[in-house]
Amino acid sequence: MLKFGLFILLAWLFGNPFIAIIVLLVLFYILDRRFVGLMPSLFKPIKRSSRIKKLKQHINLSPNDVSAKHELARLLIERKKYSEAANLLEPLQQTLEDSAEYWDDLGTSSLFSGKVERGIASMVHALKLNPRVKYGAPYLRLAAYYSKDQTEQALAYIRAFQEIQSSSCEAYDRMSSIYKGMGQEEEAKRAAEEGLQIYRMLPRYKKRQERKWAVRLLWKKMFR
Question: How many helices (DSSP H) and strands (DSSP E) are in the chain?
Answer without folding.
Answer: 12, 0
